[in-house]
Amino acid sequence: MPVKVVEDWLNACAGCEISILNIGDPLLDLLPLLEFVHITALVDHKFFGQLGEKTVMEVPEAVVGIVSGGIRSLEQKHEVEQIRKQVKVLIALGSCAVNGGVPAQANMWKNEEVFEKVFRHCSSTESAPDPQDPNIPEWTPSCTAVDEVVAVDIKIPGCPPHPDWIVEALTALLNGQSSWSLPERSVCDTCPVIREQKSGGGAVKRCFENLEFNPEEGLNKMRCINEQGVLCLGPVTLAGCAGKSGVPRCVQARTPCRGCFGPIRKGARPLVDMMGSLTSVGLDPKTVVDRRAIMNRYIGGHGFLTPLPARPAR
Ligand code: SF4
Ligand code: SF4
Ligand code: SF4
């Protein structure tokens, strides 16, 4: 009998669902073993009845739940609580679900400040009053990772997560394992560039500044991006973005790691560790522009990003 799976997105962009499709040929081997009773973005099945005729959310019973996206509204909180009740194993898919993701950058401000900036005084579109529709779900106090609301059994980070790890985690479950995780190693551990443990010193350059490399030569001839003085979050980011092929995706493209896989292990403090890493090659970490946001870009949940206390008026 195929294993029933409920897949749902919360505060998400659909990139994680595209990663499921991106599994490609191995998905054809997996599909006979799985029965997706709900999979947002890919199959038209709804929790409130097909015509929205039900007033209570009905999540089908399943063995495995997969959720992408963090939690930004009371509706999403209710949704993930209902899914948790209906499944035996819950997988958090993608960096939004695992760590809050980019949307959790908004945690640097109070909700009221976000509304003020986004709705009432937006500088890039026409400003508007707050949405008046009572059907628009109320926000939670902050944007959280899924495990801040319900227990999560398996975490597959990445923005987007690599299809290899979705296959590996599902295969582990089908083989009777109840858990799966990526090994705790850093992006630097899988990076083939030249490292000399020193840089030219001074200020850290922003990540869009050009790197020095010869496009005719392999990565093993390119100097480490941090040692070139450009911020690369490889030292504090969990490895795995290139799937089983190893070499970090951004570095393959001769650009710095921005930290999308999140911290290497539970309890890590990437901002503090990254400042130490920059110092160790002679760079001044205080020169990183907007460093709190940049070094916590994908991990604003779990209290990593909170509103700063107002500065006293001068
Ligand atoms: S982790 Fe990335 S791809 Fe997945 S929902 Fe969040 S923003 Fe989209
Ligand atoms: S800092 Fe960046 S470029 Fe340098 S080794 Fe780590 S991942 Fe590679
Ligand atoms: S190099 Fe860093 S930012 Fe780029 S895909 Fe890998 S983990 Fe994500």
Structure description:
- With about 325 residues, this protein is of the alpha/beta class.
- Helix content is about 25%, strand content about 10%.
- It has 9 helices and 9 strands.
- It has helices spanning about 15-20, 25-30, 75-85, 95-100, 110-120, 165-175, 250, 270-280, 290-295; strands at about 5-10, 35-40, 65-70, 70-75, 90-95, 140-145, 155, 200-205, 285.
- It has a 5-stranded parallel β-sheet with strand order 2-1-3-5-7, with helices on both faces.
- The longest helix is centred in the first third of the chain and has 13 residues, at about 75-85.
- The radius of gyration is 21 Å and the shape is globular.
- It starts with a strand and ends in a 19-residue tail after the last helix.
- The mean pLDDT is about 95.
- The protein binds iron/sulfur cluster (3 copies).
- One iron/sulfur cluster (SF4) binds near residues 68, 95 and 96.
List the helices and strands and how they pair.
Elements: E1 3-9, H1 15-21, H2 25-30, E2 34-39, E3 64-68, E4 71-73, H3 74-86, E5 89-93, H4 95-99, H5 111-120, E6 139-144, E7 154-156, H6 163-174, E8 202-203, H7 249-252, H8 270-280, E9 283-284, H9 291-295
Parallel strand pairs: 1-2, 1-3, 3-5, 5-7, 8-9
Antiparallel strand pairs: 4-6
The structure holds iron/sulfur cluster (3 copies).
